[in-house]
Amino acid sequence: MRYNAYNQPIGDAVQSFQQADKPSIEMLEGKYSKLEHLNTSHLDDLFELLCDTDNDLNWTYLPNEPIHDKDEFSTLINNRIHSEDPYFFAIVDKTTDKALGIISLLRINTKASSIEVGHIHYSPLLKRTRIATEVQYLLAKYVFETLGYRRYEWKCDSLNDPSKRAAKRLGFTYEGTFRQALVYKGRNRDTDWFSIIDKEWPNIKQQYEHWLDEKNFNSDGTQIHKLSIL
């Protein structure tokens, strides 16, 4: 513990602190997937997969109500294309070159070196796949190693159990619940906060890479060892 001249406890010194950069990249590429800065070429794929009425349940914890009209969805996508915060990516399968979902970086605070992953909208084709995990790895690596952030956040409705389980599986640490944090869609939201900090990233990165290795999957694509970082 460090103390100042008045015998008060103070935080650890941060050596050579540099302000983090804003996201600006057009593409991040992995073994199985690509994260492409959202653009109009993704519209048709995303509308087909995200706006089918059978997939309305995937909109429950997102800011928007389900959209079934293509013009309305096009307006949403075009607004997101031009947004700098959140900064949106399409999740693209490298094998088919088809856009399967959306993810973003948001609450971008370069001075505090803090950034959040959110607006995660996976189509049914993404769930429980290598791509679903790999894009989280690609984005975290970009945040820590390229942009230089110290803190990477994940937040969700406290009633969204799948999101909370995903955060823990991906290496985020639960930090607490902000009660009555938001009102959205005419209802209360208590928000659970999770984070990864820069000193934790090297170990978490190694766990991701071991899990994503092709040797960790059977011929039918099922995993041999689970990703269990924490």
UniProtKB/TrEMBL annotation:
Gene3D superfamilies given in the database record: 3.40.630.30
Pfam family name, one: Acetyltransf_3
Organism name: Mammaliicoccus vitulinus
Domain N-acetyltransferase: 33-190
Organism domain of life: Bacteria
Name listed for the protein in its UniProt record: GNAT family N-acetyltransferase
Stretches that traverse the bilayer: none
Secretion signal, residue range per the UniProt entry: none
